[in-house]
Amino acid sequence: MIRHLLSAADLDVDRATLVLDTAAELANLASQEVKKLPTLRGRTVVNLFYEDSTRTRISFEAAAKRLSADVINFSARGSSVSKGESLKDTALTLQAMGADAVVIRHPASGAPHRLAEWIDGRVVNAGDGTHEHPTQALLDAYTMRERLGRIAGLRVAIVGDVLHSRVARSNVSLLATLGARVTLVAPPTLLPLGIERALGARLRTSFDLDAVLPESDVVMLLRVQRERMNEAFFPSAREYARCYGLDTARMRRLPQHAIVMHPGPMNRGMEIAPDVADSARSTVVDQVTNGVSVRMAVLYLLLGGSAK
Ligand code: NCD
Fold first, then answer.
1. Domains 8-132+288-304 and 134-284 in one fold
2. What are the C-alpha distances in Å from 209 to residues 141, 154, 243?
3. pTM greater than 0.85
4. Which of 65, 167, 205, 268 gives a 20 to 30 Å CA spacing to 195?
5. Cβ(129) to ligand 1 under 6 A?
6. pLDDT tens per residue, range 17-46
7. How far is the CA of 263 from the centre of ligand 1 (A)?
8. CATH code of the domain occupying 8-132+288-304
9. Catalytic residue at 133?
10. Domains in the chain: boundaries
């Protein structure tokens, strides 16, 4: 296995498949009365969160605890970071405490890569700026495979604020590795310039959601990330929802078997209508459940030595 998980591109087909297969085995644990394995007993996992998070932080914490690791939760707020301590000094502190793995979320793209240079433990990127979020892509792939039986050949539409989305970036990379066909759908202002050229023939882009929906097995909606926007990327929330929001009427354009995904947190009524979020096609809750198994698999494979 690899040493760190910093980017979805760290995973080739075999490694990505190993993570998904291991997660599937570990998922059985969730249905048992005692949800714990002794695998990481005596190991320390630090959750180092410099950005707000609900799902991802809780998910990594549950994953580490189910594997019996000691978990230290560090959030920048209320720590010496608010006194101006640098990432490097924080890293040296973690190193001195013997952290075996550090799960880091940081507003600066590339922060996990720097951290990996400074500490001996394993580093897992839990979201860095607008760059990558590899465990989200893994849990999304797991969910697609679970619901639709495969990933290779699936037609996946990733819709919305692609420009600011680390979820989109990691998904584009992992889905290409696993053989899915991705179409990015967004208003022109929210698509990175030259993205098609950068990513080659496997990737398509479109400004027209209604045209893409009938040809999609999966539609993945992205949160409009207003906290990362300092200018007007679209006229109004209403206008955005009208053109790119998935409501019940629009959902009918999807093939019968197609699923609707969202990484959370959702802006209900904007990129996704409440009825759609709560519909049988929606995998939002499954994604959260699967996130724990996938993160268990990642920690297990990075820290637990040899795989099966
Ligand atoms: C995403 C994130 O933080 O990058 N959420 C998540 O991890 N579940 C997506 C988002 O914030 O929109």
1. yes
2. 22, 17, 8
3. yes
4. 268
5. no
6. 999 999 999 998 888 888 899 999 999 999
7. 6
8. 3.40.50.1370
9. yes
10. 8-132+288-304, 134-284
